[in-house]
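FW: tagging you since you asked about this chain on Friday. Here's the raw sequence from the shared folder, copied in full. Didn't touch anything.
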Amino acid sequence: MCASNRGAIMPPKALILFAHPDEDGSSAGASLLNRIEGEPDIEVRRLYDLYPDFNVDVGVEQAAWEAADVIVLQHPFYWYSSPALLKEYLDVVLEHNWAYGTEGKALAGKSLLTVTTAASQEENYRPDGYNKFPVETLLLPFEATANLCSMTYEKPVVVYDADRIEPEALKAAGEGYVQTLRHLLARRTGGEGAAQ
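HL: got it, structure written out here
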């Protein structure tokens, strides 16, 4: 459990940072997000709606990170990384001596989870596949960011073949996403599912 500013014990909270420049054109990403939005103790921030001009409000965003225990970076897998706004967002929000550095302890102990949708099939992300590298390898900059900020980097959630995924497979991916978040939040309290 987390202590609030008034000393009351608050349940752990997840912050979903959704970074998709074309949410309407993303059935997989939007479906995953829609499945999460009704869950308790989850705040969703649609970065392209909030900052279409890329002018990120650093103070507001740092407060959102401070209030959360689990931070999720949800985005499509663009050019082996994330869309441009998410990179800009991390560049300006994760300030020295706030997120990292000798005085930067604001994020220490929090969890960082990447959730991404890839248009390509999973077999294309193998040494003998079209893209040559596993998605997890290509996401290493996010793990390095978590490490620098003294956060726990969680195993990424990757939905492959996102442009052609069958409805039942997408529904299962959404349920898996919810279960992953529930597990991470329960682990914060030592509750059910914490030892999984």
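FW: The domain at 2-6+18-188 is CATH 3.40.50.360 (Rossmann fold).
HL: agreed, and The two ends are 19 Å apart (CA to CA).
FW: great, closing this out.
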